[in-house]
Every structure is written in C-alpha cells, then in structure tokens.
Design brief:
alpha/beta; elongated
C-alpha cells in the first residue's frame, strides 16, 4: 500500500510528461522550476562532477558512434557537445553495459542512459540545465551514492541470552538465540508468538538450490563456514574473480573486496555477511546459526549472490548496475538493506522516472526469464525488497517507497515498533529487526559475522533479510510444483502474510496503515491455501426450540485443532456448491483434535426439516469440505 502525494489531476498530467519511452512532443513536466523541466531530483546532497543523462531514441545511434570516435569524451551531437564543453567534461559513456545481454538492455531502453563526468567545481544546477537544453536529451538526473548501512545506525549488541526451543528442528547451536524465528516468550521483554512462524514452515520447505538471492550490500564473506555451502557459483562469466558475485564500486564488475577504507576512514562492518546469514546460513550443519531458507542437514539451501555496492569510493550507479547484472545471471530476489539520501523528489519516483527506477523495473521484469520473456528458473520475474530505514519518520524513503518495491519496517520481540524504525502507509510489511540500547536490554537478531564469527545486529537492515528469506522460502516451495510461479504471486504472498492485529494492539497512537499488513509470516506463504480436514460425526438435536449441533474437532494443515467454523442452516436441501442458499453462522469451537465441540442456534425460523452443514475454517480463512446432517 502507498500514499499518493499528488492530486489525481497532477498524476495524470505527469504520466504524460514522464514516460519510460521519451515522447518528444510531451510538454514540460509538472512541478519543476522553470528551466528544470527535464531535470530529475534535486541538486542538494547530490554528487559533484557527475550527472546521469538519458538521450532520446532518435539521437542514440549518432551518440554511440560519436562516443566511440571521441574515446568517451564527446557525444557526436553538436547541441550536447556544446554543453559538454561548457561544463569541462572529461568523460561521457554508457551507464549500463552487459555485453551478453545487450539485446535485453536495449529492449528495456537502458542503452539510452549515459554518465557525464566533469569538473567538480562546476555548479551542478548550471551543468544540468546546460545538458537538458539539448533536444537530443530526454532527462538529466542528479546522482548520489547509496547510503551505507553503518550510517543507518546499525547496532551490535551483547548476548541477550537464549530462548527455550523445545524440539528444535536443527542442530545449529545458535538457533536458541534466534528468537525472531520461534519466540517462546522466555526472552526478557518478549511476547510468545512475536516471530516469523518459521518452524512450522520448515515442516514442508527449508530452501531450494535453484533459488538465488542477490544481496546488494557490503561484500559477503563467501568462505564463512556457515555460508560457504550456500554461496552462488557463477556459471555465466569465465572470470574467476566473479565466482560468487561482483564488486560494482569499480567501473566494471570486479572482484569482491573487503580491504578498503571508506570516505569516513572505516573498514567494512560485515553488514552484507550479517544479512546473508539471516537468509541462508547453512542449516543442520552443527555450526553457528540457521538461515530462513538455509536448507536442512547441511544442504539444499538457497544461494547467495554477493553484489558489493559499497567500497573505498562509493559509485553512484552501483546499485542500479548490480540489479541489472544480478537479474541477467539468475537472481530472483534482490535484498537491499540500504537507502539513499532522503533528498529525492517524490514526483520523480512516484511517476517512474530516473535510472534507479529503470534498473528496479528491469530486475522485476527480467529476473528468471530469457531474452524472449520465457521463464527459465523457479519464478518468472523478480522481487526487490528494501529496508524502510532507521530515522523514525513516516516521510516516504526512496527506493523503499517506490510502488513495485517491498518496503520493510522493524518490530521488537513483543510486537512493538522499534523506536528508530521508519513507518507509514508506504511500508508494506514488517519483520523483527529488534534493537540494542543501554537501558532497555538487547533484543537484536543473531546472525553470521565477518571472520567466521557471529553477531547480534539490529535495525530495519536486519528486518529486511527476514522478508527476503521468507520470499526465498516461498519460491523454493512453489518451485517443487513446476513452472508457472510469478513474482506478482510472490509479492501478494509476502504482503498478504502480515499479522496486523497484535501489532496495532501493542502500538497505540499509530495509524492502522503505519506498519503495512503487519508482521511477516513464513507459515502463511506455504500454507495460506491449505484446506483443513472436514468436521466428523456431525450430530443435530432440537431441544426446547434450540438447535444443538456437535461434531468432532478436525486438524488443520499441521494437525492443530481448528477453532473457527461456519454453520449453515436451511429449510431446503443444498449441496456443497450451494451453501449460499443457506443462512451462515460463524462460531468458535474449543478443544483438542478428536474431541467434540458444538453450536447452539436459538430463535431460528421454524421448519419442518432442517438441512444443516458445518465447515471448518483454517487460520487463513480457507474452508474445509462441509459435513452435512438433516434434522
């Protein structure tokens, strides 16, 4: 769900002005200052000396020839080159290149995006206006690098203790610290059931090796003893440096690199490794922790593709490059615990403009497909999942708030909102990022860390991979049923899995839409359509004008007692497909499987014969076949 920030009339106008395929007849874009009609986003907080330029389809052939002749300093189009000279440009080149998939890039219009690099002392707004003045330029966009997770207040914490896990499904010693998978309420400050319902989902699926999750982050430690078996192996590229993923902070995809200091002088935090462990740490190997889709008995987990988007010098297009590269090499889910500076123009994101939007759209459309759009993997299309961020604001944060993206907020182990977590109607679903403070104890998730170790880490950065892990679990489950599963279906399952009632109860003062659909639920994505057993031995009696029914309590998909029932009463015969002809009464039955429960109907219309039926209803509202009786 999303809040629309513009009046409908403005949206309709903007859709004309801001299309995926540039319309040279379109009028000025709505809501931009005079002179900025073709300029996306705002210069404040943008990188100096660099601009993204989208050229028109009519000019691209001349530009490709001109860039080649000039060795990447000129376009070959006079009006553009005059502007490039004015801003002292030293580089003008295609933004997106992936030679084996060039046809796909062109079909998506990604070949129209160029990057102009120029003297950093030149005023950005002046440079953007100069470039946008050419009739051969469709859009100019201010660029900025992604925000590092460490700047989003990633927190690590001391050991909060263990939760009691009776009958744990794996022998991984750290599983008893992973309360976010199975919360018994024994952890201080927690509430039983405030978890992602993972153990029940594991009864039917724990992952599948055909499913690939791209982790866009710091590099993942691919030789970590609890991750190594579940790392993706690149069969698309011959370069051995790209075996488990690629570094997109360099001009071309290169080797993953941990040996750097960022612009703040800090070494990598291990954030990508933290995220990867939540998704696919190897399960049942007797080591460390478990991943949501990490397989079982040391094998069968989903695969992690490491896409490094942070480095010594963060590159503005690293995230977009990674999304395209990952989609082309078989990734199905893009896990993005990162963000951008909040200084983005909502207009541009909400109306699908910009190179970041084009890259996200490309991943969603092309992942799991060949060049003809045919499904090649366990799911057709891709899902992009972003952390909502840790600024305690309901102001939409992009890309998380972009409509096709799934935005993930963060809760504590008692369903309460993490104080720092962003919220609002643009958030789709929540997971359990927890927090660590000096006065309120520690309830951070436990996961893999650099150096082969383990760590407690918190924030929406740690909530997001829980949803990505559940997504991977869902794709794994439906992959076993053959081709046909789509990204649209996966999105509906993820968003539909949310449990909202308890979240709202524990967060008074917030809107009913501030947490999306609530806490994500792994059990739901694999059992949402499971049909419960039929009630048995339906008996009916009429005592003193009161109709009394009783039946044997059936089990649900996990042999748990059904609580919810639909009772149908009619004076005329009806069949299973004709229950709408009867009067329906909803009731709750208590007891264990195999015991009796019942319903009493008072003040019913008199009838010579009562035709009766009872159907069980699963916790997700799926009815069983009805049991019938006549009285």
């Amino acid at each position: 769900m999303r809040v629309r920030f513009l009046a409908m009339s403005a949206i309709l106008i903007s859709l004309i002005a801001c299309t995926k395929d540039f319309d040279e007849t379109a009028g000025p874009a709505v809501g931009r200052p005079a002179g900025d009609e073709k300029i996306l986003n705002i210069p404040e907080g943008a990188s100096a000396g660099v601009l993204a330029v989208k050229v028109t389809p009519a000019a691209v052939e001349r530009i490709e020839q001109g860039v080649t002749r000039s060795e990447g300093t000129r376009s070959g189009v006079e009006s553009i080159d005059l502007s490039l000279d004015e801003i002292r440009t030293w580089g003008f080149a295609r933004m997106f290149r992936d030679e084996p998939f060039e046809a796909d890039l062109r079909a998506a219009g990604l070949h129209l995006w160029y990057v102009a690099r120029f003297d950093s002392e030149v005023d950005l707004r002046r440079a953007a206006r100069a470039l946008s003045s050419s009739e051969s330029v469709a859009w100019v966009e201010y660029m900025r690098p992604p925000v590092r997770p460490s700047r989003r207040r990633l927190l690590s914490a001391a050991d909060p203790g263990s939760v009691r896990v009776d009958g744990a499904p794996c022998n991984d010693p750290g599983l008893d610290k992973q309360w976010h998978y199975h919360n018994t309420g024994t952890l201080y400050g927690s509430k039983a059931g405030a978890d992602v319902s993972l153990f029940d989902a594991w009864k039917v699926c724990s992952g599948d090796e055909s499913v690939v999750v791209a982790v866009l982050d710091e590099p993942v430690q691919y030789d970590h003893p609890d991750l190594e078996a579940n790392m993706w192996i690149n069969t698309f590229d011959s370069d051995s440096k790209l075996r488990h993923g690629a570094n997109f902070t360099t001009s071309t995809p290169g080797a993953l690199n941990w040996n750097y200091r960022d612009s703040f002088g800090e070494a990598p935090t291990g954030h990508g490794t933290h995220v990867a462990g939540t998704i696919a740490a190897v399960n049942g190997n007797g080591k460390g922790v478990c991943g949501i889709a990490g397989g079982m008995n040391g094998r069968g987990g989903v695969k992690i593709m490491s896409c490094q988007v942070f480095g010594a010098k963060d590159r503005e297009e690293s995230v977009s490059d990674a999304l395209i590269w990952a989609a082309n090499r078989g990734a199905h889910i893009a896990q993005c615990s990162l963000g951008y500076s909040p200084l983005f123009n909502e207009y541009d994101w909400l109306n699908s403009c910009g190179y970041e939007v084009d890259a996200i759209d490309y991943f969603i459309e092309h992942a799991g497909c060949d060049e003809n759009g045919n499904q090649t993997g366990p799911m057709r299309g891709g899902v992009v999942i972003f952390a909502a961020g840790n600024d305690n604001t309901n102001t939409p944060q992009f890309p998380a708030a972009y409509e096709p993206v799934i935005a993930v907020g963060s809760l504590r182990p008692d369903y309460r909102k993490v104080p720092s977590s962003n919220y609002g109607s643009w958030v789709d679903v929540c997971a359990l990022g927890g927090e660590s403070t000096g006065t309120d104890g520690c309830d951070a998730p436990y996961t893999t860390d650099m150096g082969g170790g383990y760590i407690f880490a918190s924030g929406t950065s740690m909530a997001c991979p829980q949803v990505s892990g559940i997504a991977a679990l869902a794709v794994s489950y439906y992959a076993k049923m053959g081709p046909g599963f789509t990204a649209e279906e996966l999105r509906r399952l993820l968003v539909g899995s949310g449990r909202l009632e308890e979240v709202l109860k524990r967060n008074p003062g917030y809107s009913a839409t501030d947490f999306g659909t609530g806490l994500a639920d792994a059990e739901y994505v694999v059992f949402h359509d499971a049909v419960p057993d039929r009630p048995a031995d339906l008996k009916a009696e009429l005592r003193n004008g009161v109709l009394e029914l009783s039946w044997i309590i059936p089990g649900d998909h996990l042999s748990r007692a059904i609580r919810d029932y639909d009772v149908y009463v009619s004076a005329e015969p009806f069949t299973e497909s004709e229950t709408d002809r009867a009067t329906k009464y909803e009731t709750v039955g208590y007891g264990t499987v195999g015991t009796r429960t019942g319903w009493r109907g008072e003040n019913l219309p008199q009838a010579e014969t009562y035709y009766l039926a009872v159907a069980a209803r699963s916790k997700y509202g799926i009815p069983s076949a009805p049991a019938f009786a006549t009285l």
